[in-house]
Amino acid sequence: MARDQQRIERIRQAILEAKWDALVCSLPTNVLMVSGYWPVVGTSLAIINKEGRVGLVVPEDERDLAARGWAHVMRTFQGGSLDEIRDAVQAVRGAMAHVVKELEVGRVIGYEHGAFHEPSSYASMHFYGAALQGVISEAVPDARLVPANDSLTQLRSVKTPYEIERLKTACQIAQEAYAKGHASIRVGLDETQVAVGFRAALSMDGIGRNGVERADGFTYCMSGPNGAEAYAAYQRSRSRVLAHGDLALVHCNSYADGYWTDITRTFCLGEPDARQRHLYEAIFAAREAAFKCIAPGAKNAAVDRAARETLEKRGFGKEFKHPSGHGVGFTAINHTARPRIHPASKGQLETGMVFNVEPGIYFEGWGGMRHCDMVAVTEDGFELLTPFQSSIEELIVV
């Protein structure tokens, strides 16, 4: 894999500005950003020194996948054996000591500390948590550890051209999944069956595309009155059977080698009635209003206000129950990820930021509608990463 030199340089500059000698990460999201490798079970570690040299410590089982990253130095460890029982902290010690020595890591080290929001990279994941401090201190006995959360949050918020290309691949995979899912919806299926029809293509069409090794994700269908709850912090499919005239909100968080999407489309089973068409028109108008505000230097709150005021003017202000968007890419559903497209946000957009635009309308007991796109801020505006099913006609199920 080609080394993302721009990302390495950004991290190196952050290290120098913080007056650290190195940065150590254990969360798969951060390991991916630093090394180009998305760990599977969460026991890998990434180290980058102030010269921009990257080290990886990974379990032997992940060696082949990790070799696709851009680490200058990589050491593996055995997670377990028939000779002894040991945990990840014990297993990683030797490999960590070797990498620290080879990178000539100094004593002032930034590290992850505090609360985190991390997407799942496997069915079960390991987190070092507070034990990370001990791992570093054992490898660098005189280390002075400095929490690096703020720097890591800022680094993740602005994507490099390489990372945006990887996100485009993830979105293209999702686009094919939505096309195939749309073709599979029909009256008589329940929500779980609809969701499966969208999810299957995420891996079947994703793995192998543009070198992607791991692709899959989560899809949820919420139809009829269940769609009224789609504004909540999580989505879920149920056993409700779809009927003619229903709205079916399909939400997707998919990944391609650790780069995530956040997409929603709302389909109508049959020709939309007057009320449904009015909702679609309002949602698309709010979407366009938000798009017109997106540019480097634009206030996050202004983007939210554009979408919100559009829905208010059309009589749906109270029914828009969540912010207009949040950062996407290294994480899927993290409503605090920068940039926060929120009424109270004090931030502003920068070139390279990737986020979703998700105007929604939800009526308790009746249903809901949301259209969620992903955009990347460019030097002169934005690029739409999800340019599909963007009209009423494309969302009708016949």
Assigned CATH architecture of the largest domain: Alpha-Beta Complex
| Helix-strand string | HEHEEHEHEHEHHHEEEEHHEEEEEE
Largest sheet: 6 strands, mixed
Which regions have little confidence, pLDDT < 50, spanning 5+ residues? none
Distance between the first and last residues' Cα: 44 Å
> What value does the Rg take, in angstroms?
22 Å
The CATH superfamily label of the largest domain reads Creatinase/methionine aminopeptidase superfamily
Strand content: 15-25%
What's the average pLDDT? 97
CATH topology description of the largest domain? Creatine Amidinohydrolase
What is the approximate shape?
A: globular
Strand line-up across the major sheet: 4-3-2-1-5-6
Q: What is the overall number of helices? A: 10
Which CATH first-tier class of the largest domain would you pick?
Alpha Beta
Please count the beta strands (DSSP E, at least 2 residues each): 16
The assigned structural class equals: alpha/beta
Helix content: 25-40%
Number of domains: 2
